[in-house]
TrEMBL record:
Source organism (scientific name): Streptomyces tsukubensis
Location of the Peptidase S54 rhomboid domain: 147-278
Positions of the UniProt region annotated as Disordered: 1-25, 62-83
Similarity section: Belongs to the peptidase S54 family.
Protein name per the record: Rhomboid family intramembrane serine protease
Single GO BP term: proteolysis
Family matches, as SUPFAM superfamilies: B-box zinc-binding domain, Rhomboid-like
Transmembrane region(s): 92-111, 188-207, 213-231, 238-256, 262-278, 290-310
Subcellular location: Membrane
Domain of life where this protein originates: Bacteria
Keyword Transmembrane helix set for record: yes
Bias-annotated ranges (Polar residues): 10-19
Keywords: Hydrolase, Membrane, Protease, Transmembrane, Transmembrane helix
InterPro entries per record: Peptidase_S54_rhomboid_dom (IPR022764), Rhomboid-like_sf (IPR035952), Rhomboid_protease_S54 (IPR050925)
Amino acid sequence: MDHASGGPQEPQQPDNAQGTPRCYRHPDRETGISCTRCERPICPDCMVSASVGFQCPDCARGTGPGDSGRPTPAATRPRTVAGGSLASDPRLVTKILLGLNIALFIVIHVVPDQTRLLNQLVLLGQWPPKSALVGTGIEPTSGVATGEWYRLVTSMFLHQEIWHIGFNLLSLWWLGGPLEAALGRARFLTLYLLAGLGGGALTYLVASPEEASLGASGAIFGLLAATAVLMRRLNYDMRPVVALVALNLVFTFVWSGIAWQAHIGGLVVGAGVAYAMVHAPRARRSLIQWGTSGAVLLVILVAVAIRTVVLA
């Protein structure tokens, strides 16, 4: 969801049967939140954290109704719900992630030896499996267990089928923009990468080491979980997002060929990190947010290290 531009406007009058207010900057969006200064209704994309409640972007900049228009002091500059800085383009990181996925998709389809490149980038525990090499004196030559930890990252941006990348990137666009606007760029990118790594780590920990996996699904499930956490934080109706999570989980376990470990890992990590992002008390916000992110990364690294020792 993009921010609309322009100066202060008159409050929009409710025009639905229940009289639910609509955001004064996005008249098509219903909302139950109002600016604490001018009392105009605002949607999540327009909410700026204040000492009490939320303000609209105009009031946060000092250009709202009744403001003098003087520059806002640095200590009270507009912040997102999670405490991040407001950006002129709230979808910039989302667009960059989309571009990386598309670029790698194009590369693997134009290189002469596609299979070889895929084998070097997919998430693979160990190949050939050591159990098949007992007594031969030969050691596995590729996989995370042989030191190729980079596969946990490269596999997050790798897709082979057009339907696979299409579904994941549509989901990234729909979920990423609102989350990036609500969290801020740094926090959103941290959430995305940790969810993807969490999905990869659980896959590596549980799945057969010779089974290869790829795709952004772990990160996407993390964004889905984060959306649910954010909606709960804003007291929005949870039924649509709960139904979406349930439907995706059904597909995860019913549709053959899906690495369910990546989906579950991303979902759990995304929910945990997002909860810390949006519920951290203002006085200790940065400590809790980045401390939680660091702790999650440490757990991921320990899980990968334990699995590597087991496979060695």
